[in-house]
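S1.2 Input.
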Amino acid sequence: MQDWITGFAGLGLLFIGLRMVGAEVQQLAGGRARAWIAATLLRPVAPQVVGMISGACSQSAGAVTFAAAGLVAAGAATLGQALPLLPWSSVGTSLLVLAAAIDLRLMAFVLFGSVGCALLLQVDRRARLRPALYGLLGLGLLLFGVGLLKTAVNGLKADPQVVAVLVVAGGSFSLALLLGVVSGGLLQSAQVATVLLLPLVQTGLLDLPPVAAVIYGACLGTGFGRLFVAGSMDLASRRLTLAGALVRVVGTVLLILLHLVEVHAGVPLLLALVQRAPVDLGLQVGLLYLISQVMIALAGEAVGPALAARAVRWLPDPQAREPAALRPAHLPTGEVRDPAGAYLLCQLEWTRLAAFLPHYLDDLLAPEERSAEAFSLARRHVGSTTILSALESYLVGALRAEPSAGDLEALVRLRTRVSLLRALQASLHGFAQDVGALPAMERPARVERLVHGLHAVLGVAAEALGPRATEEDRRTLRSITAERGALMEQVRQSLLEPDGRRVSAEHLVDATLHFEKCLWLLRRLAEDGTAGAE
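S1.3 Output.
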């Protein structure tokens, strides 16, 4: 009974350690990691290298999939560019299997002592060091959990019932493969399923061929399991997950065929290569897992583009018929799990809305002066308001996802800019409605100059609030939106002189008030030095 409890505790520590390592590495990297990945994806071999590094650091192919889906949703990468990250991240996760094949309990004890001393010295008070500190603690728990599993198996190998079950499982390729599919699907981690086999291998209860069958089955199981998880994701995540799962299934089927050829035809292939390595059986399992993941990734390089195209065909965009300017472009659906990544997506959507501001006046301009994607004022306002509402909802979700102190500050500031943008959209809508209510023949020349002047200011604002804006751009916007209350009062008086009709007078006054409010809101946005620059 003690051995079973020890094994259960080791399993729990293994899962706790994996979760802590993945969460703290993600917290440590935050949005900077996404920016770095997006900037390097176009370079040769970059997706492969970045995928391996990400998988090795997070020890979670699922976390890498989520980060890659965020890049695709944000428009920072295409599906084809992000897809290689997935299979190569599994190559990076092989580090856990190789490390677990060695008795690293002493390293776990060193990590426990180091983290304890750091906590005693209150190192965790520094926000930047806290994720690294707890990530090391998670690594120590992971290694210690593997050690406990080995201890438990050493005790269980004397149980004849356990040995009988393992003999039956090890003697049937189909049964071992099915066991791998079930364990990989439930655990959603092929490397964890492999780590659980290491104590059985190192105590002589299992040989390499049945372990290979379990590994291949676990790879299939994780591929199928990710398809079920993808059901609640946004479209970009579902497409990427589907394509990644197809790559995994195709590569694993190739491995299974090679395995059957080697076992039944006697052709020396992967097993023969691994068995010739001058290392113990545990490390041979680690090498087998590593080589299998590399082969799946190489298969993905060959068939990945075709599978990505198939995923797009199988999962069409239900909103594709709607104009892109009238629907969110960067906001995924579902629960926010990464506040740093959510901030980047919200910032991109906010910048996109700011670029649409000049189009609010399209109805008031001559046809040749309108934008290429001109919509009626009502349709433009409804579309922009819908996008802004989705942005606010996603931003609230990011604030509720327990962001770090730095991310919390950035999200709160962005929420303020979202409120200013909503007020600006409402004022522009009011200005365009009031001016549009005046017959074109009755509009004073000053009103036409107000329309063209505001349109020019909005064009400057779209640049000054954009992603490539400089301080000089924002200084220009602040200058042209400076306080001109006395001048606007003179404009209102001059507008009222030619036409004494009450309806026209009301619309003229309201238009000038909306004009003045638009300038004030634009100045507020320009005074926020982070707008569009982060």
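S1.4 Remarks. Confidence is low (pLDDT under 50) at residues 499-503, 530-534.
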